[in-house]
């Protein structure tokens, strides 16, 4: 929705804290970026082939992997095994957790409060989203989009000057007013 900032959190994926992880309840898959996968130091032999997902990549990456994903602290946590598609995608995130993850964790997102609530053995687990990562990610996205936007403006031609504001003929103080009585 417009005006909603992305929910970015820091889950632990395969014993590594992964920053800039997007929580996207509208995505039908979970994506782990190749750079993040390499950071996890998992052998490529463990990857399994999968079908390509259209509209997201060119279809060249067709690999998936199952990783443990943990939210919380040592006192209150929850871990589930999540299947990720590993792909090259030009987005400013390290991973995307979609609807399959939210349903497996039985998580509820609260965009107004920038948090996710997850039931756990020790009660409700509240995952606060990282505002610093959100601002950095949005800045990166805007900078990446700005050359494209400027190129589109050049095609349209030079920008027109703003119209000059006309001076009022009479100011409010000088204007004569008539008194009219209404029945």
UniProtKB/TrEMBL annotation:
Region (Disordered) residue spans: 162-183
Domain of life: Eukaryota
Protein's UniProt name: Uncharacterized protein
């Amino acid at each position: 929705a417009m005006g909603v900032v992305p929910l970015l959190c820091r889950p632990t994926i395969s014993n590594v804290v992964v920053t800039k992880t997007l929580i996207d309840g509208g995505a039908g898959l979970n994506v782990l970026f190749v750079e993040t996968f390499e950071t996890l130091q998992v052998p490529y032999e463990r990857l399994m082939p999968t079908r390509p997902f259209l509209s997201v990549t060119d279809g060249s990456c067709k690999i998936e992997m199952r990783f443990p994903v943990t939210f919380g602290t040592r006192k209150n946590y929850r871990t589930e095994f999540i299947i990720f598609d590993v792909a090259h995608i030009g987005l400013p995130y390290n991973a995307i957790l979609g609807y399959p993850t939210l349903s497996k964790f039985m998580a509820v997102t609260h965009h107004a409060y920038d948090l996710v609530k997850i039931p756990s053995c020790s009660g409700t687990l509240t995952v606060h989203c990282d505002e610093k990562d959100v601002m950095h990610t949005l800045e990166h996205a805007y900078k990446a989009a700005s050359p494209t936007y400027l190129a589109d403006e050049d095609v349209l031609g030079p920008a027109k000057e703003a119209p000059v504001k006309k001076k009022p003929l009479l100011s409010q103080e000088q204007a004569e007013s008539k008194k009219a009585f209404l029945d």
